[in-house]
Automatic annotation (TrEMBL), chains A, B:
Species of provenance: Desulfotruncus arcticus DSM 17038
Record field: catalytic activity: L-homoserine + NADP(+) = L-aspartate 4-semialdehyde + NADPH + H(+)
Lineage: Bacteria, Bacillati, Bacillota, Clostridia, Eubacteriales
UniProt: NADPH binding residues: K107
Bilayer-spanning residue ranges: none
CDD domains: ACT_HSDH-Hom
Protein name stated in the entry: Homoserine dehydrogenase
Gene3D superfamilies membership: 3.30.70.260, Dihydrodipicolinate Reductase, domain 2, NAD(P)-binding Rossmann-like Domain
Stretches of the chain forming a coiled coil according to its record: none
Length: 430, 430
């Protein structure tokens, strides 16, 4: 063990923590040659000292006592992979206060408490790195902060939840229903027993808040993000979408507009020839448009032991490099602006709408009239007989404000010939 | 003009130079807020002081005298966008010797003289940044050096020449012939009057040498790269490829194997559902596989005024940040290893082969025998009548060494029933 090793304290040893341990020990020689010093895990905080960790390690590394890490001046970097807010936030704050650099994979924490943490990091001249918090191993935080820094970013559109992308891909390829695919995803371990965070869009919303903050240099928090999940997506909608040359994805969409920053997560129809349309299964991708670079996309695995650990360890290598040169915090918080978050009612989008109606004359006219009255203009109309007395109408609109759309839908819902508005899905990327 | 401005000397004011000037002046306020100091172009070296540059600028900025930049101690960063080797290499060496950080878009120079230049940069504690030299605005150099640093990279496969990708896309979508598409690309300004560098694969080979050096931490130079262009690709091959569920792309392929580093540029069949298959027109993409992160891909515009300038200015911002913290050269050359370059004869690949034969009994048997004699095993065989006396045989092989394939082809070429081997194209990505 060389004297130049940089000592690390780890909080947590779950899936990602195990991956971090494996990479740091298994790839140690290369890491050392790349940064000029070795990385050494000195202590790992765990709740249960005796649990089998699925990885061979020196039991002496484990501790149940947070102060073994916080009060050890030799430990320069804290890797936080325990997740959650309580007591994680306290631990991370304490580490920064003690001048330790922090690497975290914790989107829940960064999406809500980012501002406080960055201020603390800056005040204590410490690195706070969080590449792993968004889209697992895909490099996106540093590319936005550095490689694309010369740009004004106009929009970030991402498939940033692997579970729902797996489910939608299955539904698209096999025509299967939501409930069936969810069960399958749970069996495979892609979806949790309580899948709400994924299927209701909250996980994607956290990541989108982080991405938007960096892309637009203005703090966006979880509460700012309009969020809709995929639970109402049916095989029928996916089939119609295909007929219209679209595919259905759960997208996180962030745009900078004159009326403020737009941040929303919802199922979306995108054209089949859009680069995001080809991103299938558990893969993630983030599509970024800048005023100079144009359209770019970053693709890869958004979760999993080793992909996420890849980002964590790469961040730790950067933190170590900064420590060796005595410049921790060289790139800190980039939210130097305070841009308003745009009201959802003002957001402009195209819409796909599926409506059940009585199959009699004048129905389409009354629906079309309600739309035009609210300045909603129609681009495509499909009408199909479903049984002797019911027809299904599928519409795609031109761009219109959310507020107008909701008002039009409110009127249409109450038309006597309308039996049900089966679905309303936004359309993006034309 | 604030005292904290970082002064820049620019070499060249062509297409990319104009883009750099536009971004630095047009986006100056944001750049300043991101790095804590403004970027200021103090001098620009041009050959002709009176030429119209297509951009409004103070004529006082222009100079025909290189020493106005090299000997100005106020100039801390040199942006090289004049291209070529002579006299560029001298200028860049001089800048580094004078302790100036250098940002360059010059793949020709880096792919051949990288080693000398990095040594010079290190000796003089200067940054030498070259993100723009590969794939224009797409972040790939820094992601490989930093974001994926924890990985052992196994392979890098890229569509890294926009001109040929545009041409192949056209040929695929419209069934048009090579010559016709080349004329069209020249008319549109996508291909140069002398298109050899693009269509013969040399441009891609330079970029691949740079990518492989970084990915495998071992210097690879242009001469190491086996290079084949797209001139022999016909509409017929593309059509057969489609029938077999492949698409044809000019790929740069770099792999680390036990027998050394494999680096090759050639037209390639890849499966239509491979992420690279959907990369069309002038877009570029680099597919990177690491032991921890798995498969990732970086997509965007590989050339053009503003996309390339996006990478140049972002690099200049990093150089400025390093200067402000007094750590230029914090990430320098990462070629700490010396791995052998694998002999092309040892490379393993699958192959697509199209052969014209006399349409009589026993022909296929004699061909199949020649292949099996050289241990080439066949995966797919298509045979089609082309006229009364000729048939066309299309074969796809399993993986086999290049050497065996060439030996088998040598025998087949001389079989009495074989009229011509029309094409041999490697297959990748299954």
């Amino acid at each position: 063990m060389s004297v130049e090793n940089i000592k690390i304290g780890m909080l947590g040893l779950g899936t990602v923590g195990r991956g971090v341990y494996r990479i740091i020990t298994g790839n140690g020689e290369n890491i050392k040659r790349k940064i000029g010093a070795g990385l050494e895990i000195k202590k790992i905080l765990v709740r249960d000292l005796n649990r089998d960790r699925g990885v061979e390690l020196d039991q002496q590394l484990l501790t149940g006592e947070i102060n073994d890490i916080m009060e050890d001046p030799e430990i320069k970097i804290v890797i936080e992979v325990m997740g959650g807010i309580e007591p994680t936030l306290d631990f991370v704050q304490q580490a920064l206060q003690n001048g330790k650099s922090v690497v975290t994979a914790n989107k829940d924490m960064i999406a809500v408490y980012g501002k406080q943490l960055f201020e603390l990091a800056e005040a204590n001249r410490a690195d706070l790195l969080f590449e792993a918090s968004v889209a697992g191993g895909i490099p996106i935080i540093r590319p936005l902060k550095q490689c694309l820094a010369a740009n004004r970013i106009n929009q970030v559109i991402g498939i940033i939840n692997g579970t729902t992308n797996y489910m939608l891909t299955k539904m698209t390829k096999e025509g299967s229903d939501f409930a069936e695919v969810l069960r399958e995803a749970q069996d495979k371990g892609y979806a949790e027993a309580n899948p709400a965070s994924d299927i209701e869009g909250y996980d994607a919303a956290r990541k989108l808040a982080i991405l938007a903050s960096i892309a637009f240099n203005s703090r966006v928090v979880l509460d700012d993000v309009y969020t809709e999940g995929i639970t109402k997506i049916t095989a029928t909608d996916i089939s119609y979408a295909g007929e219209l040359n679209y595919t259905v994805k759960l997208l996180g969409i962030a745009k900078e507009t004159e009326e403020g920053v737009e941040v929303r997560v919802h199922p979306t129809l995108i054209p089949v020839d859009h680069p995001l349309a080809a991103v299938n299964d558990v893969f993630n991708a983030i599509f970024v448009s800048g005023d100079a670079v144009g359209d770019t996309m970053f693709y890869g695995r958004g979760a999993g032991e080793l992909p996420t650990a890849s980002a964590v360890v790469s961040d730790a290598m950067d933190a170590a490099r900064d420590l060796l040169r005595n410049v921790p915090g060289i790139i800190s918080c980039t939210c130097y602006d305070e841009k308003p978050v745009k009201d959802m009612g003002l957001v402009e989008s195209r819409y796909y709408i599926r409506i059940q109606v009585s199959d009699k004359p004048g129905v389409l006219a009354s629906i079309a009239y309600a739309f035009s009255d609210k300045e909603v203009s129609l681009a495509t109309v499909l009408q199909k007989q479903t049984d002797a007395v019911t027809a299904e109408i599928v519409l795609v609109t031109h761009k219109v404000r959310e507020k107008n759309m909701q008002e039009a839908l409110e009127i249409i819902k109450h038309l006597s010939s309308v039996k049900a508005i089966s679905n309303v899905i936004r359309v993006e990327g034309d």
